[in-house]
Write a structure and sequence with these properties.
Blueprint: H1 15-28, E1 37-38, H2 41-48, H3 52-64, E2 68-71, E3 75-78, H4 83-87, E4 103-105, E5 111-113, E6 131-132, H5 145-157, H6 173-187, E7 196-199, H7 202-213, E8 219-224, E9 226-227, H8 228-236, E10 240-247, E11 250-251, E12 263-266, H9 280-293, E13 296-300, E14 325-330, E15 342-345, H10 351-362, H11 367-378, H12 381-408, E16 413-414, E17 421-425, H13 433-442, E18 445-446, E19 448-449, E20 455-456, E21 467-471, H14 477-494, H15 501-504, H16 521-529
The protein binds pyridoxal-5'-phosphate.
Residues 136, 201-203, 227, 229, 267, 272, 300, 302, 330, 332, 337, 342 line the site of pyridoxal-5'-phosphate (PLP).
Length: 533
């Protein structure tokens, strides 16, 4: 038989691989039938102008993978049982049947949830913006690159078997000890190293807890609005969400249901997304509720390292005498989301169970990042890094408050004492948050409504559409001013009374004379060039 093949002498795909691939494709698409005899290696090598060895090696690989059979002194034949074809169902009716609700059943009736709600992790507009106030992004340049590379390198040199052997699934002991020290000094939490489980960020920690707590088919109490990652995860486990509103003092604890063995997910230090801090009387009430109903509280302390005034507020876990709080911490916000390291503080009595679940989930986190992070903390780099970025974010927050005041005459905000974002209450004479989001986008500025900024607004209240969520940590002071001034000008086109006089009197497209800390025209043009449209 003749095989119609065309080889190319590109150096990125070897000839032997091309022969293998082309014959394999011909077998799979039926061009060459099962049982057919293939040309002898000598003949095929002459036809294709390649060495006989190339063909022999390609045949040997095809034989190894079960596509052909070499029969001594008889020849080479296409196998009667082709591996890929054997994996296909005999007819279409064998394929699992899909149902419209996003579930399909497979053998034995197991159900796979084919549709879950996906959280928005990055700016949903997917286009470069001249100023993007997306939430929760650390300043890219603040990553301690030099120190980090040194620590990684040092650990690599002395790694020994650490990279080849399984380690404690709960995480590197050095890191757990460093975390305990940090929690004691900054969050008022006392924990034993057995209570710490290193995970791949808060989201991974939430998954661990969901598995442990059997949220499945139960219900989960959440703040509304709340972090999408938590709400959608609970849903994916089949839990019904039980939303509790948030007011200026945080979660309205008087509305907690009196149901035993519940689980409540909260963000007490800096409510996500509204930014409010849970008041002390509510903290006490929440803890008392958990003790009374034998429930657990999941405290997500995602950005608590950034408190701009006064001493850090003790975490809820620091007040937990009944062992009812499971604490989630992350290095995503204070170092970088790319390193994917976080931790869970497990209440006494549940340590073994948590460790067993963690082992079943993934046998533990990568050793190298854990080791470098442990050194980063132990050697004092973490403290100085935190001090530095706290100052940086404070300046950026102040720049945002100044810009809002200057251009709109109002900077009535929620949650500005801490964190990486604040919530601006839109003055009455301006359009709604949804409208402003669209207008801002048309001039290359990303601002977000309560529900578009990575949050789930489970009981959308009318007043939420008067709130805009503005992340400031990843923007320079110049970018912040540029973004807010552009937004002000765009709104002034619709309603000249929308903005303050200083902004309103600017000629079309021009930006106010610069004051200290604001961008020069040159800088602004450079930023503008980064926009696509
Ligand atoms: C409230 C909240 N929790 C958790 C996370 C995710 O943290 P991680 O990167 O550690 O999974 C975020 C991310 O923005 C968040 O806003």
């Amino acid at each position: 038989m003749t095989l119609l093949m065309k080889l190319s002498r590109r150096d990125d795909v070897g000839l032997q691989h091309q022969v293998f691939e082309q014959i394999r494709s011909m077998i799979l698409d039926g061009t060459v039938k099962c049982g057919a005899k293939l040309p002898a290696t000598r003949l095929l090598s002459e036809t294709l102008g390649v060495s006989r060895n190339t063909i022999s090696l390609a045949y040997a690989r095809l034989a190894d993978e079960g596509y052909i059979e070499m029969r001594e002194s008889v020849g080479t034949f296409v196998s009667s049982q082709i591996p890929d074809l054997a994996l296909l169902p005999a007819n279409a009716s064998d394929v699992s049947s899909h149902s419209l609700d996003g579930h399909f059943t497979i053998l034995g009736g197991a159900s796979i949830a084919a549709e879950v709600r996906s959280q928005t992790l990055i700016n949903p507009h997917r286009r470069p913006l001249c100023a993007d106030f997306w939430v929760g992004r650390p300043a890219a340049k603040s990553f301690p690159l030099k120190t980090w590379s040194k620590l990684i390198h040092r650990r690599l040199l002395s790694a020994g078997g650490a990279l080849t052997e399984y380690k404690d699934p709960a995480g590197l002991l050095d890191l757990r000890k460093a975390i305990i020290e940090h929690l004691r000094a900054w969050r008022g939490i006392t924990a034993h190293e057995d209570q710490i489980i290193i995970v791949g960020g808060c989201q991974d920690g939430l998954n661990l807890v969901c598995r442990m707590m059997m949220v499945r088919d139960g219900s989960a109490i959440v703040e509304t609005p709340c972090y999408q990652g938590a709400a959608y995860l609970f849903e994916s486990f089949g839990a019904r969400l039980h939303p509790i509103p948030v007011d200026a003092k945080g979660l309205v604890t008087s509305m907690l249901p009196d149901v035993a063995n519940s689980i409540a997910y909260v963000t007490p230090s800096h409510q996500y997304p509204l930014g409010v801090t849970l008041a002390l009387d509510r903290r006490i009430e929440l803890l008392a509720w958990a003790a009374r109903t034998h429930s657990y509280i999941l405290e997500d302390d995602y950005d608590s390292d950034f408190r701009f005034s006064g001493p850090p507020i003790t975490a809820l876990k620091g007040l937990d005498r009944a062992g009812r709080v499971i604490y989630l911490g992350t290095f995503s916000k204070c170092i970088g989301a790319g390193i994917r390291v976080g931790y869970v503080v497990i209440p006494r009595g549940l340590e073994d169970s948590a460790r067993h679940f963690k082992t079943l989930m993934n046998n533990g986190q990568p050793w190298l990042e854990q080791a470098a992070l442990a050194d980063f903390m132990k050697d004092g780099f973490y403290e100085s890094h935190l001090r530095r970025i706290r100052r940086l974010y404070l300046n950026r927050r102040n720049a945002l408050l100044d810009s809002l005041k200057r251009h709109f005459g109002s900077n009535e905000v929620l949650g500005a004492e801490a964190g990486m974002h604040l919530v601006w209450r839109i003055p009455k004479h301006l359009p709604s948050a949804h409208e402003i989001e669209t207008i801002a986008l048309s001039v290359g500025v990303g601002v977000y409504t309560v529900s578009s900024g990575g949050a789930a607004d489970l009981c959308p209240a009318a007043e939420n559409d008067r709130l805009l969520v503005l992340g400031f940590s990843s923007l320079s002071e110049q970018e912040i001013e540029l973004g807010i001034s552009r937004l002000a000008q765009a709104l002034a086109k619709i309603n000249p009374l929308a903005i303050t006089r200083s902004s309103a009197h600017l000629p079309k497209g021009e930006i106010r004379p610069r004051s200290k800390g604001e961008a020069s025209q040159k800088q602004k043009r450079a930023l503008d060039r980064r926009m696509l449209a």
